[in-house]
Fold this protein.
Amino acid sequence: MKMIKTWRPALTLTCVIGASAVALGAPEEAQLVKEAKVTKRQAETTALAKVPKGVIKSEEIEREHGKLIWSFDIAKTGTRDITEVQIDALTGNIRSMQIETRKDQMKESAADRAKRN
């Protein structure tokens, strides 16, 4: 019973911080989705057409270099590479498509962590 009492404040704090982060990020994403003329589903269809037999591993809507884009990381069986496909959220056109090796992915993850800290 003592152990539960000791962990309860830490768990509560963790939940509050996590909920705050979600709450703070959600309105921005919701606003970007409202601005998009192309739905996430339409963008997914376009992205998956470029990577046959691919599976979307992550997706996001973001403003990159002043452009509103849907970004999809797509994996294929038999490779650890990820194909990143960016779709213009206003026109539905493919903005970019690049293959990220495992090494590229690790670099990107490290850069993302550094941005957050």
